[in-house]
Specification:
By secondary structure, the protein is of the alpha+beta class. It has one domain. It has three helices and four strands. A hairpin with a 3-residue loop joins strand 1 (about 35-40) and strand 2. The longest helix is centred in the N-terminal third of the chain and has 15 residues, at about 15-30. The chain is globular.
Length: about 110
């Protein structure tokens, strides 16, 4: 007896794919950027901004939420409070800065 193959629905886009697309867009609009600081909040919203070789801002701060027209109501109220940060990191542009420059930028932008 032949088995029928079930058609799988296409998976919904993962937050990481949307996040990566935003990072690439920020790099395109920020020629001085060596990295993009990504701050993920516990509500699912994200804050991102490009940083230059000195660790200074190289773009505006962008807040967004995957698959949504705008950020959540809580972020609208508190602008993405640092108390709700679930993860933060810097996505580096290739070629990446040396380890000492990266450490300086991480400390300056994200803290200890």
């Amino acid at each position: 007896m032949a088995q029928k193959k079930h058609k799988q629905s296409s998976p919904s886009p993962s937050p990481e794919k949307g996040e990566q697309a935003m990072i690439e867009g920020i790099f395109e609009g920020s020629p001085d950027a060596v990295g993009v600081a990504v701050i993920r909040l516990d509500c699912g919203c994200r804050k991102m901004a490009a940083v230059n070789q000195s660790g200074d801002p190289a773009s505006e701060i962008i807040m967004y939420r995957d698959n949504a027209e705008s950020i959540c109501d809580l972020c609208k109220k508190d602008h993405g409070s640092f108390q709700r940060v679930s993860r933060q990191f810097i996505s580096w542009k290739t070629p990446e800065p040396d380890i000492y420059t990266k450490e300086m930028i991480i400390t300056k932008v994200l803290g200890n």
